[in-house]
Amino acid sequence: MAALHGICILLMVGGVSSKTTPDINDKVATGVLSAKLRTERMYSKVWGRQGVLGLNGGHFHAILVTRELVETALQTQQAYRMSWYLPRWLLNRFYLCLLVLNCWSSVFIYSLLFKKNEARRRFACPLCDCILDLVSCVGIPFIVVLSYIDQFNADMAGFEMERWYSESWAARILNESQMVLVTSWSDLMSRTVFSLGLISTTTSLKKLLRLVPSGRDTRINCAPVNIKVPDKPTTKGPALNSGSFGLRSRSSQLVLHLVHLLFAAWGVLVLGLHIQASLQPELPQCTLQVHPWAVSEPACYLAVLDCYRLGISGKMNEVEAKWSEFDRSSVVTLVMRHCASLEVPDMITEFHRVSGIRVYNSTIDNWGVSAAITNTNHPDFATQICAAYRSIWTQLG
């Protein structure tokens, strides 16, 4: 992703330097200039302001709607992943507000703010997309990384080993790193789309921004001349309106209105899912709780069964009752501690995403074969710390 932005910067720098560097070989310079002109003409026909895919092109609305559909779908997927991996309420709500406002921006821009100004509509729509693409591509990973900079040890080229023994810190960084690193091909595709969208929108906005000369620099003194003006109505240049650029028929306008209503409903749906997730109760056994969408039970990626704090001894029915209160598939780290008589139920096989299990200061009375840790039920399992200093195994099935 950084390479794409770097190429754009190099092209801009190269364009400036080419204007200031004198030509050494006229023949070579002529060939380079002709190739450059051909490339510019081809680019202008496709991506130029009046090109097929340009801001003033006849397919502007169709291209904009298609791009917004793809980007909004991927941004919704990213918001869904954030609801699973980030326990930071402020960051989740900030991104969700941007996503909802972007869904509603089409309705506001086309129906309320710039209803009769096509030029401003064509500037406002790419601007909204550019802001959300910037936050999706750069903002979220940057904020997550920034929170760990002061904890990073440059001499060790990593984090201090003592931090990894902290249950909450280890679980948090393992989850939040998935919002920074590429974890799958679909994740790579979405990040690529965000980067390309950011480059496309910034390039389009750059073409619309021009420096307006001041009146003092363009004032010319001239003698008054009497000119006879014919009594004919003057004609202006072609106006930029929806009728002359891609929305000639009523059916096209109707389709555009329906798409805007779809985006508005999309925003309402996303907002409703977030509100439903935020209403999930806080549980004492969920040390780090997240609020994923469309989940009927509370979710946490650090579950701590503290028998002393919960007022239980660790019997099988007590453990099952506490574990059944939250969604087991969301747990990454499972901790059991201070249990006088711990019996591990078969429900532990439902913790499919768990990567580490820790047992502290507990007497394990029963951990049967049916509750074993297997690759089938726990494919991401990596570490198990048992009997840290006082755990006692009295019976193994």
TrEMBL record:
<protein>
    <submittedName>
        <fullName>Transmembrane protein, putative</fullName>
    </submittedName>
</protein>
<feature type="transmembrane region" description="Helical">
    <location>
        <begin position="93"/>
        <end position="114"/>
    </location>
</feature>
<keyword id="KW-0472">Membrane</keyword>
<keyword id="KW-0732">Signal</keyword>
<keyword id="KW-0812">Transmembrane</keyword>
<feature type="signal peptide">
    <location>
        <begin position="1"/>
        <end position="18"/>
    </location>
</feature>
<feature type="transmembrane region" description="Helical">
    <location>
        <begin position="126"/>
        <end position="149"/>
    </location>
</feature>
<keyword id="KW-1133">Transmembrane helix</keyword>
